[in-house]
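TASK: fixed-backbone design
INPUT:
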């Protein structure tokens, strides 16, 4: 009976870890993915397979789409970016 209780406790602990699991990943954009262009005296930076923001009166910024697979029974409650690196590009 004691072994069964330990087994059940271990199973519940494992389930709780799966339910409250965090995804930690890394997103990188390489120089080779960037496309530089100009239009009507404006410089434009594009990302390969991306698009530009279209808010009127605001700068057009490149957008990179990221897709994640989330199990059907999990609700995403937060997205946090904990670190970023900035690199100045010539041009």
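OUTPUT:
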């Amino acid at each position: 009976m004691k072994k069964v209780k330990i087994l059940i406790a271990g199973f519940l602990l494992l389930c709780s870890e799966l339910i409250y699991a965090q995804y930690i990943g890394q997103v990188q954009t390489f120089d080779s993915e960037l496309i530089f262009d100009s239009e009507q005296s404006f410089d434009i930076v594009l990302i390969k397979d991306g698009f530009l923001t279209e808010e009127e009166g605001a700068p057009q910024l490149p957008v990179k789409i990221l897709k994640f697979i989330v199990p059907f029974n999990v609700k995403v409650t937060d997205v946090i970016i904990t670190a970023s690196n900035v690199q100045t590009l010539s041009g």
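COMMENT: The mean pLDDT is 77.
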